[in-house]
Write a structure and sequence with these properties.
NADH Oxidase; alpha+beta; five-stranded mixed sheet
């Protein structure tokens, strides 16, 4: 999974080949990725281009962002912090696993027919479909709009680890040993996708605890999802590297400038 996290990139131009032959693999991955660190399993649904055509939606993406034949994965969640964090975690786990199996993916948060999709799938109550994952077989060429979006959010703009990971307070960056397991884990977090490539997460190390914060006090649906994506990258990398521990929510770690989310407690080595 670490290799996939290091190499994955958003694919917006897909071939016209259907994913029908890979449906069993996709459904297996979908079923294995339904639970995030805050509990509350999420049912992930898949719709094909044929499904969308029958429902009168056509291409779910807007502004020509996605070209070629793409299926879409999404879930229906409660409108809450836990719901959005788990959503980001679960769908990103799907994206990474699909990448490992040669299937391209792209997160869509503000460039899909959200209201149309919700009108077909939502029941009454405070529930939403905050984002979708486009999936398909990558093509060698990129559309013009895809190139524009890629330039605006190019991965070369990753924030340095010194701006993402801190030691005991937010004034001191965590010093990482080159080539260490922790450098690898935090590099995986650094490579996590986010809305507008903002990387809104901050990690504060305190002894054997790693506290995850949002860089601002202002929460939105998308930056909550971004937090879930970052937590997913951390979790998958540390498990692959054999670091044991558990997730806990502390209720006394609020910060005047950052919004606290969750803590990973590492078992003593």
């Amino acid at each position: 999974m670490i290799e996939a996290m290091m190499t994955r990139h958003s694919v917006r131009s897909f071939s016209n080949e259907s994913l029908y032959q890979k449906r069993e693999l996709i459904d297996q991955i979908r079923q294995e990725s339904i639970k995030g660190p805050l509990g509350h399993p999420i049912e992930l649904l898949r719709v094909s281009p044929l499904d969308l055509k029958k429902q009168g939606i056509g291409n779910l993406a807007t502004f020509g962002v996605i070209t070629g034949s793409a299926d879409y994965l999404f879930g229906i969640i409660s409108d809450s912090r836990a719901g959005h964090v788990n959503y980001g975690y679960s769908l990103e786990k799907v994206a990474i696993t699909l990448c490992k199996n040669g299937i391209g993916t792209c997160w869509l948060g503000g460039t899909f027919k959200k209201l149309r999709l919700e009108s077909l799938y939502l029941m009454k109550g405070k529930r939403s479909i905050p984002a979708v994952l486009a999936i398909g077989l990558p093509t060698a060429s990129e559309s013009v709009i895809g190139k524009v979006v890629k330039l605006a959010t190019r991965p070369a703009d990753h924030k340095p680890l010194s701006e993402l990971v801190f030691d005991r307070d937010f004034q001191h960056s965590l010093v990482l040993k080159p080539g260490s397991r922790w450098e690898t884990i935090f590099t995986c977090v650094q490579r996590a996708p986010s809305a507008r490539n903002a990387k809104p997460w901050r990690i504060l190390k305190e002894y054997n605890q790693y506290h995850f914060y949002l860089e601002t006090r202002e929460e939105t649906d998308l930056n909550r999802i971004d937090m879930g994506i970052a937590i997913c990258h951390f979790d998958l990398a540390r498990m692959e590297l054999g670091i044991e521990g558990r997730w806990r929510v502390r209720h006394s770690l609020e910060d005047p400038e950052h919004r606290y989310f969750i803590t990973f407690v590492r078992e003593k080595e």
